[in-house]
């Protein structure tokens, strides 16, 4: 039983109170103080949900694409994967799987998720480095400072069982804190078999197995606040039936530290640092029910080393607040494909593929006249990418041709990307407000889109059963985004429709190529099927509407609904093509 309360406050803040009326009885209140209007916050109310990403289904315009039980890829208005900026505990975690087997929002079990925020419409410039497809922010449960010097102990335990897969999920969080020190530790375990429907066969392989733990400490003295966190993930045999391989294991940890300094007169500085080191093995034979031909056994050992820093200064300016930020992150991706039955066989999937981002932004938000708010931001990002030379034991002429062409190309590439946004919000009355927004948002190619040199299905989780190759010379995507929204709320009814139009130049999409060395390689590897798609820049547009509404029937009962519609098409070809 859920009880949602939603009111339109005088300044058009949507305030959403989610009382998860289960035995944990937690109440999470998301308000204008920490969210801008139009953002949608949600807290887990049901323990049957596996991870943070599963909460997305309740958010207008948002959804989750699952390639496996622990592989939930966030999508927003038809955009997904690296186009949607997913922030977990202030960090832009990198995936170790080149097919997004470990997307950022799938890391935290639902019971250990404190809240998930999705910005409806244009994501603020300050919300991340590349926000072309929106921003989603997840916070895990942690210790919080208490009101007095007396230490308090808090605990949370949850246990969930799902019959379809005989699954058991359990988690424990303990915190010990006073007004200047806070400690926490959490552990979770999720395990399940292949899921089954009555009267049908099980979906094979859809088993899962994951253990995770987190340790954290925070301290506050005077104007200073310091926090440390370490989280470790140990995923075992887990299926991803829509991908060519399954997870054998994912292991590794993320360490983060943050520091906040209050400078008085409404000024403060926030800095953060994180480092991650993840390893992953996947293969196409251990969990697959029908096995593969003896010569087709493949395993892929992949790693990511990543880290980032951020410093953001906030100060009052001209009746509003100004944020100035300096941010950057780096990641290096490797993947080595081998054959356990043939020690001679290998293919570099990715060899030292680097993607480094250095970014600076300024954002101002405030009232420019009575009941008229402006949010305006600008960001510059330099994306530096590079790859080491690749190799393979395969000596066939077309493989050698692809290898030589790749190694001789300009692997080191730098993009200079400018983002900008301006959003106006006008309160017409205490019940009705309107919003108009315009933005320019950019995204550079992912390392897969740039450095996939041999036709494989390593595409960031597209799961379309096709093989792709990349292009080192891809230009960044540039989107011009237009947004219009209305929020109405009175007498227990609220209604918030939004419409958007995104005109994307150099949208990166796979396009079929023919009669190349890549087609010959694909034919040899895929039993004569020579179909290959190459990532290319095309021109596209995406448009649609999403509507959020609700009606309070009584103090205990309410109806809520969301309708989302998005359509995408290419502008540079005559035929209408879906690009979602
Ligand atoms: Cu994988």
Quote the distance from N terminus to C terminus. Answer: 34 Å
| Helix/strand structural class | mainly beta
Overall number of strands? 28
Percent of residues in helices:
under 10%
Low-pLDDT stretches: 1-37
Tell me the major beta sheet.
Answer: 18 strands, mixed
Oligomer category: single chain
What characteristic shape results from the CA principal axes?
globular
Number of helices: 3
* Radius of gyration based on Cα positions: 24 Å
Bound molecules: copper (II) ion
**% residues in beta strands:** over 45%
- Quote the average pLDDT: 87
Notable traits:
four-stranded mixed β-sheet, mainly beta, binds copper (II) ion
Layout of strands and helices, then pairs:
Elements: E1 2-8, E2 14-20, E3 27-30, E4 39-42, E5 62-68, E6 71-76, E7 79-80, E8 85-88, E9 113-119, E10 135-140, E11 152-162, E12 167-177, E13 181-192, E14 208-221, E15 224-235, E16 246-264, E17 267-283, E18 299-317, E19 320-339, E20 342-369, E21 372-386, H1 397-408, E22 413-427, E23 432-443, H2 447-451, E24 467-469, E25 477-490, E26 493-513, H3 517-525, E27 532-552, E28 558-570
Parallel strand pairs: 8-10, 24-27
Antiparallel strand pairs: 1-2, 2-3, 4-9, 5-6, 6-7, 9-10, 11-12, 12-13, 13-14, 14-15, 15-16, 16-17, 17-18, 18-19, 19-20, 20-21, 21-22, 22-23, 23-25, 25-26, 26-27, 27-28
The site of copper (II) ion (CU) has 7 residues, from β17.
């Amino acid at each position: 039983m859920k009880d949602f309360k939603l009111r339109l406050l005088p300044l058009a803040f949507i305030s959403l109170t989610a009382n998860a009326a289960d035995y944990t009885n937690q109440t999470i209140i998301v308000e204008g103080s920490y969210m801008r209007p139009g953002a949608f916050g949600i807290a887990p109310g049901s323990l049957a949900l596996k991870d943070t990403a599963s909460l997305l289904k309740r958010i207008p315009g948002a959804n989750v694409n699952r390639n496996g039980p622990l592989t939930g890829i966030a999508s927003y208005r038809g955009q997904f994967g690296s186009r949607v900026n997913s922030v977990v505990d202030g960090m832009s975690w990198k995936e170790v799987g080149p097919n997004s087997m470990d997307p950022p929002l799938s890391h935290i079990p639902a019971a250990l998720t404190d809240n998930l925020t999705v910005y409806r419409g244009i994501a603020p410039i300050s919300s991340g480095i590349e926000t072309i497809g929106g921003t989603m922010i997840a916070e895990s449960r942690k210790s919080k400072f208490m009101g007095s010097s007396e230490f308090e102990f808090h605990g949370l335990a949850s246990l969930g069982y799902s019959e379809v897969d005989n699954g058991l999920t359990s988690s424990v969080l303990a915190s010990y804190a006073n007004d200047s020190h806070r400690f926490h530790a959490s552990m979770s375990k999720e395990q399940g078999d292949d899921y089954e429907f009555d009267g049908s066969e099980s979906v094979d392989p859809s088993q899962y197995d994951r253990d995770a733990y987190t340790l954290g400490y925070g301290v506050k003295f005077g104007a200073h606040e310091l926090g440390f966190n370490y989280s470790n993930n140990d995923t075992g045999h887990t299926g991803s039936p829509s991908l060519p391989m399954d997870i054998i294991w994912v292991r590794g940890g993320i360490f983060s530290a943050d520091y906040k300094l209050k400078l008085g007169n409404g000024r403060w500085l926030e800095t953060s640092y994180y480092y991650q080191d993840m390893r992953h093995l996947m293969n196409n034979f251990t969990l697959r029910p029908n096995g593969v031909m003896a010569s087709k056994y493949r395993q892929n050992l992949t790693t990511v080393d990543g880290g980032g820093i951020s410093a953001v200064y906030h100060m009052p300016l001209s009746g509003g607040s100004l944020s100035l930020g300096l941010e950057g992150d780096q990641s290096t991706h490797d993947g080595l494909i081998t054959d356990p039955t043939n020690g001679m066989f290998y293919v570099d999937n990715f060899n030292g593929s680097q993607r480094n981002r250095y970014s600076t932004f300024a954002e101002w938000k405030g009232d420019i006249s009575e009941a008229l708010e402006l949010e305006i931001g600008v960001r510059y990002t330099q994306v530096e990418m590079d790859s080491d030379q690749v190799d393979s034991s395969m000596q066939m002429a077309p493989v050698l041709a692809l290898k030589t062409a790749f190694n001789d190309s300009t692997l080191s590439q730098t993009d200079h990307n400018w983002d900008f946004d301006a959003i106006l919000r006008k309160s017409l009355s205490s019940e009705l407000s309107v919003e108009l927004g315009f933005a320019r948002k950019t995204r550079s190619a992912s390392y897969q889109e740039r450095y996939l040199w041999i036709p494989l299905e390593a595409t960031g989780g597209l799961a379309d059963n096709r093989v792709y190759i990349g292009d080192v010379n891809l230009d960044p995507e540039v989107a011009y985004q237009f947004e219009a929204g209305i929020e109405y709320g009175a007498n227990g009814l609220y209604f918030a429709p939004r419409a958007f139009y995104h005109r994307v130049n150099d949208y990166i999409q796979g396009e079929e190529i023919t009669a190349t060395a890549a087609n010959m390689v694909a034919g040899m590897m895929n039993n004569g099927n020579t179909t290959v798609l190459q990532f290319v820049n095309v021109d596209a547009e995406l448009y649609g509407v999403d509507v959020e509404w609700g009606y309070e029937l009584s103090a205990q009962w309410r109806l809520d609904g969301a309708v989302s519609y998005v359509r995408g098409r290419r502008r540079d070809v005559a035929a209408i093509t879906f690009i979602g």
